[in-house]
Every structure is written in C-alpha cells, then in structure tokens.
Write a structure and sequence with these properties.
This protein is mostly helical. Helices cover 68% and strands 6% of the residues. The chain is elongated, with a radius of gyration of 19 Å.
Length: 108
C-alpha cells in the first residue's frame, strides 16, 4: 500500500496515516504563520506573499524595495519548515537546542 505520491504510509497504533506532502506542510505552515499575525496585517501579508510568488507580482514588488524585502524574507522563513531546504541552509534545530542548553548551563 502506498500514498498517492508513491511514498510508503506512516503506520502508528494500528492506524495507517499518509504522510502529508511537502506542499501541504508548507501551506499549513504558511497559514499558521498568517493566523499568528495581527489581524490588520494579515491580509497585507497574504497579498505580499501572493505577489512575490508570481512573476508579474515580483516585478511589481521590485519597484517597492521595502515590501519586496518583507515578502522575500517571509517566504525564506517559511522554507525552513521544509527539511531539505533547512538542511541546505544549514538549519539544524537539534543543534540550536543543544547550543541553548549549553548556554543556560554555563550561566547557571
């Protein structure tokens, strides 16, 4: 048995659960991020992200450097949820946790 994307399903507690596709995880991460934004800024962020992901929108944002930087940085931040992208960027959450623990131990 395999999922529609050809991956083996995740089995736990006798229940077979298909692992979500990377695109759906990225979409879920983006939605969590946007829901956490202040209500008045939420729609503006949605608009910026939608523009940045489209060629003509990216051209438009090139004329607004501050907005382009916000959109670019936000999309880059959201890519950290994709493990392959995080590995490429050198992001290792376990190493960050270990460094934090070491710092707290030294201060104690």
């Amino acid at each position: 048995m395999s999922t529609p994307d050809g991956k083996a399903p995740v089995v736990g507690a006798g229940v077979v659960v298909a692992e979500p596709a990377p695109e759906s995880r990225a979409l879920a991460a983006r939605e969590r991020f946007l829901r956490a934004a202040p209500p008045l800024q939420r729609n503006g962020l949605r608009l910026l992200l939608a523009l940045k992901r489209r060629p003509r929108g990216a051209q438009l944002l090139a004329h607004l450097p501050a907005a382009d930087q916000v959109a670019h940085a936000t999309l880059a931040l959201l890519r950290y949820d994709d493990q392959r992208a995080a590995d490429t960027l050198g992001w290792d959450p376990d190493a960050v946790v270990a460094r934090g623990r070491a710092l707290r131990e030294r201060r104690a």
